[in-house]
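Entry 14. Ran structure prediction on the chain below.
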Amino acid sequence: MLWMGENLVTLPQFYTVQDLRAQVATWHAQGLKVALTPTMGALHAGHLSLVEEGFRRADRVIATIFVNPTQFGPGEDFDRYPRQEQADADLLASASCSGLYRPSVAEMYAPGFCTSITVAGLSQDLCGVFRPTHFSGVATVVTKLLLQALPDVALFGEKDYQQLTVIRRTVKDLDIPVEIIGVPTLREADGLALSSRNRYLTSAERAIAPLMFQTLTEAGHAFASGQNAQNVCATATAKLLTGGFSAVDYVAIRDAETLESIEQWAGKPGRILGAAKLGAARLIDNIPILGRNSG
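Output, structure tokens:
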């Protein structure tokens, strides 16, 4: 619950599939359109932008919070991933969210659960090289959330662009009747993409972090101006390392839909993606490739 002036705002919360489906069915029976915004919590303004976009496309918006164990690999940050249940609920209430679905691990993965979804190709490159089980966990949990909620629309941030692409492919291949919407990345004033993991950064690392966005932006313009992808990505990688990042997993230029490699700019929609380590944080970001006459 959240106090807003003299009014107490109550955020409806659901903990079981049965209760979630009952509420969505009630809205659908009333002729209302429903949007879903899946999250892992530790919410920030970027998540709230998904809720806002949801209301542009639907009459009701349900957010989900579930820190999904199957998308974390050995040695990753599942145990220390930030959890702030009441603060998250207050933020969603302040955004007039229609409801919060917060299942337990047991509700999501009942005893004996043994099914997983793998999206070949799209999930095996880029972050998939460094987190080989990650996208199977993502595809599986998102599929379950979509089938549990049965929304008309689901919204995901473009910051996790490979994830968005994997989800779109999963929904298309499995004929799940939901429209997937990518929402542009929300950034700090200095360009750093908003992320729950930014809180892992020390003050010194936070000062370095915007270099990721700056470097990808410069690299995108260089590529659109005629330089080949290999040289552009090598230059960007060197700049990140020189600028203070401890390791660069990749800088890559890909087709915006298929994530296939692009060597020379040909005017098709493209994306330049990067992942690099800075202290305890692994930062990912991406930007669209802009043409010569674009901003």
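The radius of gyration is 20 Å. Will compare against last week's run tomorrow.
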